[in-house]
Design a protein that fits this description.
This protein has helices at residues 2-8, 11-28, 34-48, 50-61, 101-116, 135-145, 162-175, 190-198, 226-248, and strands spanning 79-82, 123-126, 153-156, 181-186, 204-209. It is of the alpha/beta class. α2 runs antiparallel to α3 and α7 crosses α8.
């Protein structure tokens, strides 16, 4: 009971109820903007409720629910892991707290896959930075501290986008004589990453992690709150990227 009361008192929920009340008052007084306000309320509910946010996430993740070794892939095929962002631009080479949660999850998932593949493959870590230390450097530091030999790591530190992840990793994969590779990234990010990396022309075994879509409990299914709004923001960012790839042909 207290959990639902806290949800009802969250700023996002209060904003939604206030907006809904204003819309109702406009309708009662037959003011013309009430229809536009109603559309806004419904759109806000869609992105801020657990039901709507998880539906958006599911649309991206539906083909990437599980990670498994693909047919034809071996323990010698390299792993490519993509950075998921970092905070600030003045982190030290060992300040792993500067990495965003997505980068941390992907890093440890890459380590887990490396262990599953008998600690044989090289790991290509891809991710630039605004200045100073890169995502790739911080992620590599974590991998080294968790037991991956530095000799098994290759860093790509110039990329600023998913498209650049693929473009700059392509030459490194060729220098490694890779014939195929595992791609580690968040499940929500995987559709866009696949489009970008397919342009390299090598077979890809997707290794999706950090799945976000799930069915919340019925009691809180409809209540808008901050976490679903953040999840919807991430999902809409990916959808915007997919649309841009489709319109510009950059995924080809």
């Amino acid at each position: 009971m207290m959990h639902y009361l806290k949800l009802l008192l969250e700023p996002v929920a209060l904003l939604f109820f206030l907006w809904a009340w204003v819309t109702w008052r406009l309708w009662v007084r037959r003011h013309r903007p009430w229809k536009l306000s109603l559309v806004g309320v419904l759109a806000f509910w869609l992105v801020a409720s657990p039901l709507g946010a998880n539906a958006l996430a599911w649309l991206l993740e539906r083909n990437y629910r599980d990670a498994s070794v693909c047919d034809g892939f071996s323990v010698d095929d390299p792993i490519v892991v993509l950075g998921g962002g970092m905070r600030g631009s003045d982190a030290s080479p060992t300040q792993t707290s500067a990495l965003m949660e997505a980068s941390m999850v992907r890093t440890f998932a890459a380590r887990g896959l490396w262990q599953q593949l008998e600690r044989a493959p090289a790991i290509l870590v891809s991710g630039g930075g605004a200045a100073g230390v890169s995502e790739a450097a911080l992620m590599s530091y974590i991998l080294i501290q968790s037991g991956v030999p530095p000799s098994r790591l290759v860093r790509e530190e110039s990329s600023r986008s998913t498209r650049e992840n693929a473009t700059f990793s392509a030459d490194l994969l060729k220098s490694m004589n890779a014939e195929r590779f595992y791609l580690v990234t968040s499940a929500m990010h995987m559709p866009r990453a696949r489009l970008a990396f397919d342009a390299i022309g090598l077979p890809i075994c997707p290794w999706p992690v950090d799945q976000k879509s799930f069915m919340p409990d019925a009691g809180g299914l409809w209540l808008p709150s901050l976490r679903p709004l953040q999840k919807s923001t991430a999902a809409l960012h990916e959808m915007k990227g997919l649309l841009w790839y489709a319109l510009s042909g950059r995924g080809e």
